Amino acid sequence: MNIKTLVREEILNQEAYSAAEVSCRIKLDANENPYDISDSLRSRIIERIKKVPLNRYPEPGSPEFRAGLARLYGVDNDMLLVGNGSDELIQVLLMTIKGQASGVMIPIPTFAMYKISALNAGHKVIEVPLDSQFDLDTTSMLEIIADKSPELIFISYPNSPTGNCFDAGKIEVIIKESNGIVVVDEAYANFSGKKFLSYLERHENLVILKSLSKVGLAAMRIGVLIGCPSLVHELNKVRLPYNLNTFSQIVASLYIENEAEFQKQADKVVSRREELFDGLKRINGIHPYASDANFILFSCSFDTNSVYVKLIEKEILIKKFSTPEVLQNCMRVAVGSSEENEEFLGALKDIMVGEGLESRST
Ligand SMILES: Cc1ncc(COP(=O)(O)O)c(C=O)c1O
Questions:
Q1: What is the largest CA-CA distance in the chain?
Q2: DSSP 292
Q3: Ligand 1 in contact with 117 (CB < 6 A)?
Q4: CATH code: domain of residue 138
Q5: What's the alpha-carbon Rg for the chain, to the nearest Å?
Q6: What global pTM score does this model have?
Q7: What percent of the chain clears pLDDT 90, i.e. is strictly above it?
Q8: Does residue 253 have its Cβ closer than 6 Å to ligand 1?
Q9: Are residues 82 and 178 in the same domain?
Q10: Which of 232, 258, 284 represents a domain boundary (last residue)?
Q11: Is residue 86 located within the same domain as residue 196?
């Protein structure tokens, strides 16, 4: 039997998201928080988990977490949808919105799952390259809005993998001009301090996505969507009933109670980011791009594949890119602890200088 004859064409034609499967002592490839939670918070989580009846399904719709989020963000409960990571919420949005005729618009480069999930859901994807400053090309985007009226637009703010926040004025113009939904994905907002939440009052077509993965709870897979009640009502029909397991719901509720503790860690990561940026700047042949997130994109004047492999030999994992073209000589490194950053910078320098990789002009 040829299984491929049973599979939808758009699935056959694409690659799965490639999360690195190599395990390294120093893991700087997935933009995680380098710091684990405090012992006292861990004990409180364990105490609550001990009492969980494992024979029962989780609470559908995560009511305690949603009530906490409503308080934290000052929004109504019916504006909130929580998911198994924001990845799931991206998928739910794409399964709900028509889009097939007019397409889903994304700037590129950006977070890979927008395109992968859009194609999986049968949408056409309209990619609009960022300008030379890695900002939105609003002229092209507005033309596409006028011409094709995409039903969904994804904007990562800060953007991954470039690390910058796009100009907020440009984003607002896109929200205003779009007849579709504009998603502002704030997965990295704890590191930028810039948020679009207050714009929700002004724009019914705005959806905000949040993730607890980058602030220290990646293992628990917790994402949040905030949007107008009529959209959330429809999205709820697509969301699977028990999408956030009981352990994740417990940890999510404790996150709300301890948000300040998580933000303190994020602030520490921001300080480490500046040190890492300075360190990268000092290495010949490396050009880091300014970042508002918990990672730094840098271009190198040498073969990134070779550097990537040599870093792995030193048990350091970062992220390399093969597409799009503009990223071909770029790599992305997550901000680690001071020790991790120092070891990474030392290793990168050694690889360049000591192992005789020849510089080529960029
Ligand atoms: C911009 C952006 N949005 C969403 C996600 C997915 O986050 P989650 O772990 O909540 O699924 C990521 C993960 O890397 C991301 O970079």
A1: 62
A2: S
A3: no
A4: 3.40.640.10
A5: 21
A6: 0.95
A7: 88
A8: no
A9: yes
A10: 258
A11: yes
The count of structural domains within the chain is 2
pLDDT at site 325: 86
> Where does the chain show beta strands of DSSP type E?
26-27, 80-84, 104-108, 125-129, 152-156, 181-185, 206-211, 222-226, 286-288, 295-300, 316-317, 319-320, 330-334
* pLDDT per residue as tens digits for the range 326-358: 898 999 999 999 999 999 999 999 998 865 654
Residue 98 lies in a domain: yes
Ligand 1 pocket check for 185: Cβ under 6 Å = yes
Span 72-113, pLDDT tens digits: 999 999 999 999 999 999 999 999 998 666 799 999 999 999
- For the cut 60, the answer to whether the pLDDT of residue 361 exceeds it is no
CB of 86 within 6 A of ligand 1: the answer is: yes
What CATH number has the domain bearing residue 319?
Answer: 3.90.1150.10
229-263: b or e for each residue (b if 16 or more CB lie within 10 Å)?
Answer: eebbeebeeebeeebbbbbbbbbbbbbbebeebbe
Whether 215 is covered by a domain: the verdict is: yes
Report the nearest atom of ligand 1 relative to the CA of 223.
10
Separation of 187 CA from ligand 1 center, angstroms?
6
Nearest protein CA to atom 2 of ligand 1, as residue: 187
254 and 265 in a common domain: no
| 3-state secondary structure at position 328 | coil
Same domain for 123 and 141, yes or no, is yes
The DSSP element (H or E) to which 250 belongs, if any, is helix 246-257
Alpha carbon of 337 to ligand 1 centroid (Å): 21
- Confidence tier at 360 by pLDDT (50, 70, 90): very low
Give nearest CA residue, ligand 1 atom 3.
Answer: 187
Question: 269 and 323, same structural domain?
Answer: yes
Could you say which of 219, 235, 258 is where a domain stops?
Answer: 258
Q: Indicate whether 362 pLDDT > 50.
A: no
> 305 and 232, same structural domain?
no
**66 and 208, same domain (yes or no):** yes
What residue numbers bound the domain in which 274 lies?
3-36+261-353
Q: What is the mean pLDDT of residues 246-263?
A: 97
